[in-house]
Amino acid sequence: MTPTPEAIPPTSLVPSMPTRPPGAPSSGPSPSPRVPRHGIASAIAVAGVLSVAYAIGQILYWAAPDIVSPSPWVKVWLLPEPTPFRVTRYLLVAGWCVAAALALVLLLTRRHATTADADAVRSELPFLLQLATRTCQFGILGALLLPFAAMPLAALGSNFPQLLLCLPTTAAALFLVHRAQLYRRMPGWLLLSGFGWGVLIGGGFGLVMITWFQRYGAGYFLDFRRPRGSIREIYTLFCLNGAVVTELGKAAGVAVLFLLFRRHIDGVVSGVVLGAAVGLGFNLTETVHYLGFIQSAHHPAQFWDRQVVGLFAAHVAFTALVGAGFGAARWLPERRDRWVAVGGGLLAAVGGHFETDVVLMRLDQHRGEWFGHHETLSLLLGIPLMTLITSGVFVVLYVLILRRGLRAQAAGLARALHAESGLSGGPARAAVTAPEIPLLLSPRRRLLLELRVWRRDGTAGLRHLVRFQQAQLDLATQHWHRERDGADIFVPDDHQLRARVLELKGLGTAAATPSGQAPPAQEALS
Fold first, then answer.
1. Best exposed site among 243, 363, 444, 449 by fewest CB in 10 Å?
2. Model pTM?
3. Of all residues in the chain, what percent are helix, strand and coil, respectively (each to 5)?
4. 262, HSE (Cβ side, Cα atoms, 13 Å)
5. CA-to-CA distance for 493 and 521, rounded, in angstroms?
6. Quick check: 499 and 429 in contact, CB under 8 A?
7. Can you tell me whether residue 139 is helix, strand or coil?
């Protein structure tokens, strides 16, 4: 009879930290196995879409009719060009030139490789060609994307006190989003990359495109023969434009990270988490930007709305749905179905954003009537009620998707863990043993064990335990994925994952390959 985890001493479920001989160089555990990454070209295409959208905005501005009217309220459409916006315009043109130059270098490099002699090809040319190709590709990606960070950096730098005010709540929300991955978790650097995209690239693209519409929208749609009706149309179109460009900028971040690090975004759970991280980053930039414009007397209401009540709604909810679409598309065999999943998530995000902005403006006009002009009551109850009405359904939707994904993940991991524990080699040399399975499948037990190890061994012991258990869950996850329909080359090899678990367990790598088989050679990165 197999003993239950409660009957086993905690030390039998906690691996001892690997020791090294005196004088031996210090080395951590082997890095996680890597797999080929073929998405850089598609990521550049996504960045190109953002540049094309920006160019369309500039063309519409150049072609917009001039606004000529003696009315003083028209000045709101004729504000001077913000300095960070002007800097972004110059940087984007420079980035396009750099990207074109790097594309030419890349083309010449590949052409030279095709004419090189056979001896050079067999020796050092493949490595140099790969290095030059990667350098040019990532250089093109950076040249197309980094100029969009100018406006967010200016907003965050010029409103530093507001940034410090918003950082604690944002950091707490990001931690909760990370912990929502109850089983296998994506690397922390990937989650922070999504958050950074939302802060800089997504936030910058949204600010730039919204500024463009502010500068050309009135020229196309303002009709002085019926000013009231045309202004209502402009504000509606302003909401639609804001919904499209902001969700496009955030979805581009999810798409780029999905294309570059597809192994780690392996389902709706990781997709929802990555999308929520991008949304949190965008929400931080937008909050700080707005707090810098409004009067300080309105800061508490805006902070309560954006950083407390609506922190997991609005932008987080919309981009989480986009991420869920990408996560679901990972395992769809037909290309048409993948486009439907991704497009459905983006359409839900744009529609939800537009609906929220339009309805929220109308509800805000009646908030004072609902609560009898009691500002405190209107703030504490009115804003949560408005948030529930506008974006509550989208919050419920992404929470249900996350819950369903976690259930499917738990069922798949249970099968994979039992299969792994049944491999030959004996319990003493197994990457996963039978007593460890209930612990790995119980987030509550793992959390309690982490707290006990932290109290006993400190931060170093806790890091080792988390790394070890995540390696076990990663091994089981990839084993489960390999048996699913639609498994691709982005699923790493079991032998390398098993070797990492045994190394973290302090057993070495001799038993990493069952039945005495030699592990296959690791695939080269593309």
1. 444
2. 0.86
3. 75, 0, 25
4. 22
5. 10
6. no
7. helix
